[in-house]
């Protein structure tokens, strides 16, 4: 299991040299800033940059969809190696990739946890699992190891006083989100992470009980950020400012616009782009979960993961500096 937990860090290391030597190619010509940003989307979802573009907040800056991603770590790895111009991931993954030597920097928060947008760890109603220690020797299903959900599990166990050796006896395993509910109900795993539409649909059926959630642990917080490479920031400051401020405006539009209107707009965008997607999940949308106005990034939103990764022995504190991890200078709403 130790090797499995380190898989992402190994993946990150593979791409660092390429990122640094390739210079993270962009669509910009010499001396001219790019007007097109390449990115990966998410199947069945409308990302904040896509929403910002549709609302007219990106001005003459265009988004070029190159395909869909399967995870945040993969998305920022693609940004670090120049396959796309920006990517987004859980802040812990950002810290790990930066510690591995990738020349990336976060510019804006784009998702988080609040009373509406959260990921819960669920067990069967009649499960004997009632507290952290009951998870010893049990399997906990989640979409990706070494990312947001495993971090939440680790914090939950540590706060209960479990020793590092005891924490290792709880087994996080990869289970596709669409299979998590069934895996819990069929007792293939003892607990599983559910969020969004999958959580709401599962709870409608009954028979499940929440053990804890990321919101229960940390309150409202921004959990993930969009990153660019340092070279892209140097070469295209105007484009990055337009992008970041546009996404910030889309966050606030989502926050202040009636929910049904936000959902309708997202469904319209998804349907119009013609990627053969099901808009069902969008109808369950409630919140971005972003904590600060316009996605402003705070020290603590990254420092908590520096501490967590250091405790796990995956990085050393001297590998990263908070001042090198992020900047709010491109975000007009963060001033």
In which order are the strands of the major sheet placed? 7-6-8-5-9
CATH class identity of the largest domain: Alpha Beta
Alpha plus pi helix count = 15
CATH architect. name of the largest domain: 3-Layer(aba) Sandwich
Gist of the model:
The chain is of the alpha/beta class and 335 residues long. The chain has helices spanning 2-5, 7-22, 48-54, 72-80, 91-99, 148-159, 164-167, 177-185, 196-205, 214-218, 230-235, 237-256, 259-273, 300-311, 322-325; strands at residues 36-41, 62-68, 87-90, 104-113, 119-124, 139-142, 171-174, 191-195, 208-213, 221-229. It is 42% helix and 18% strand.
Verbal overview:
This protein is α/β, with parallel strands linked by helices and 335 residues long. It has two domains: 2-114 and 221-334, D-Maltodextrin-Binding Protein, domain 2 (3-Layer(aba) Sandwich); 119-218, Periplasmic binding protein-like II (D-Maltodextrin-Binding Protein, domain 2), CATH 3.40.190.10. Helix content is 42%, strand content 18%. It contains 15 helices and ten strands. It has helices at 2-5, 7-22, 48-54, 72-80, 91-99, 148-159, 164-167, 177-185, 196-205, 214-218, 230-235, 237-256, 259-273, 300-311, 322-325; strands spanning 36-41, 62-68, 87-90, 104-113, 119-124, 139-142, 171-174, 191-195, 208-213, 221-229. The chain has a five-stranded mixed beta sheet, with helices on both faces. Strands 3-10-4 form a three-stranded antiparallel beta sheet, with helices on both faces. Helix 3 packs across helix 12 (237-256) and helix 5 (91-99) crosses helix 14. The longest helix is centred in the last third of the chain and has 20 residues, at 237-256. The N and C termini lie far apart (44 Å).
């Amino acid at each position: 299991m130790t090797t499995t937990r380190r898989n992402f860090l190994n993946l990150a290391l593979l791409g660092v040299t390429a990122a640094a030597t390739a210079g993270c190619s962009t669509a910009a010509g010499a001396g001219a800033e790019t007007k097109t940003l390449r990115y990966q989307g998410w199947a069945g979802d409308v990302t904040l940059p896509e929403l910002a573009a549709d609302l007219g907040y990106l001005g003459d800056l265009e988004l070029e969809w190159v395909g869909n991603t399967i995870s945040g770590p993969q998305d920022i790895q693609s940004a670090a190696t120049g396959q796309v111009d920006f990517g987004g991931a859980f802040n812990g993954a950002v810290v790990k990739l930066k510690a591995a030597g990738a020349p990336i920097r976060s510019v804006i928060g784009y998702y988080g946890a609040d009373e509406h947008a959260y990921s819960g760890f669920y067990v069967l109603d009649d499960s004997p699992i009632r507290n952290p220690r009951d998870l010893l020797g049990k399997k906990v299903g989640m979409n990706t190891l070494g990312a947001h959900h495993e971090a939440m599990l680790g914090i939950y166990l540590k706060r209960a006083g479990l020793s590092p050796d005891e924490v290792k006896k709880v087994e996080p395993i990869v289970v596709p989100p669409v299979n998590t509910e069934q895996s819990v109900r069929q007792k293939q795993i003892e607990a599983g992470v559910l969020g969004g539409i999958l959580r709401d649909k599962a709870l409608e059926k009954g028979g499940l009980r929440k053990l804890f959630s990321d919101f229960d642990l940390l309150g409202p917080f921004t959990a993930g950020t969009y990153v660019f490479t340092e070279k892209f920031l140097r070469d295209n400051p105007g484009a990055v400012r337009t992008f970041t401020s546009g996404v910030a405006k889309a966050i606030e539009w989502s926050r202040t616009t009636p929910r049904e209107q936000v959902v309708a707009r997202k469904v319209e965008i998804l349907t119009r782009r013609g990627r053969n997607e099901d808009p069902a999940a969008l109808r369950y949308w409630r919140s971005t979960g972003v904590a600060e106005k316009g996605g402003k990034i705070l020290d603590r939103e990254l420092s908590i993961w520096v501490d967590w990764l250091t405790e796990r022995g995956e990085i050393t504190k001297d590998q990263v500096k908070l001042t090198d991890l992020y900047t709010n200078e491109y975000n007009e709403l963060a001033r």
